[in-house]
Design brief:
The protein is mainly alpha-helical and about 70 residues long. It is about 65% helix and about 0% strand.
């Protein structure tokens, strides 16, 4: 396990970068043209970035970036 110390300004910047990455991933995962192994790689990246984001942000912010799974069952 690694750790590092950030000041308040650096924490805000890290939050901003993580939010932008999550927004982009969520947007791209909704694209119907992307499929297969690429979509799975994007899902893995989303999970990793979201876990990091949870360490920096409060729970209310995390809810905004949670992935909503759509069930194919009818």
């Amino acid at each position: 396990m690694l750790g590092f110390v950030l000041n308040d300004k650096e924490v805000k910047e890290m939050e901003y970068l993580l939010k932008k990455e999550l927004e982009e991933l969520l947007h791209d995962m909704e694209d119907k043209r992307i499929e297969g192994i690429i979509k799975r790689a994007m899902e893995e990246r989303y999970q990793l970035v979201f876990k990091i984001f949870q360490r920096f942000s409060n729970p209310a912010d995390c809810v905004k970036y949670m992935r909503h799974r759509i069930s194919n069952q009818k």
